[in-house]
Amino acid sequence: MLPEPFDLLNENASTPLTLAKGEHAFRQGEETRGVFFVVSGAICLTRMTEAGAAVTLHNAKAGGMFAEASLYSDQYHCDAIAVAPSEVVRVSKRAIQTRQREDAVFSEELTRRLAAQVQDYRQLLTLHAVQTANERVYLAVASGRLRGSVTQFASEIGLTKETCYRALKSLTDQGALSKTGRGKYALRRSF
């Protein structure tokens, strides 16, 4: 079942997809066909820089949405790669746009959902402005951003994985974080 307001769309507006680890939901430059929801697994949105480095734009987990910008773009601007076996649902761009024009309540709920995501991205930009790696990592863990691998987390908050691992170790050694599992950390006290 799709979250609000997408649950108001006709059944034929959505297409379930099963992706193996490493498989693409879409590739950068492909024609946009819709937005996606993660039912299970995880999807990493990645863009290649001019220098050939992969930059993580977003990590979508179960219950998450991705490719929202495709509603207003002709081409996808990044790759969407399954980082684990994943079940996703693609919701038709055409169906969403038609419903927006016909239903003010649907349009308002969609706008509300997208506005919440803008707020989340602004929080991420704030994290990027934090100068020290230790403080940035601590604040990012405190805000719940360490949801996938440490490598994806590091990319999302604008650090190399090596710098991120050093900061996690330092924060653990200082007692600010405790390691609860492989790639898993919890807050212990204020930094």
What does this structure look like?
InterPro entries: cNMP-bd_dom, cNMP-bd_dom_sf, Env_Response_Regulators, RmlC-like_jellyroll, WH-like_DNA-bd_sf, WH_DNA-bd_sf. Pfam families: cNMP_binding. Residues 1-74 form the Cyclic nucleotide-binding domain. The protein has five helices and ten strands. The chain has 191 residues and is α+β, with helices and mostly antiparallel strands. The chain has two domains: 6-103, Jelly Rolls, CATH 2.60.120.10; 130-186, Arc Repressor Mutant, subunit A (Orthogonal Bundle), CATH 1.10.10.10. A four-stranded antiparallel sheet has the order 1-8-3-6. Strands 2-7-4-5 form a four-stranded antiparallel sheet. A hairpin with a 2-residue loop joins strand 9 (177-181) and strand 10. The longest helix is centred in the middle third of the chain and has 26 residues, at 104-129. The chain is elongated, with a radius of gyration of 18 Å. The model has no long low-confidence stretch (mean pLDDT 92).
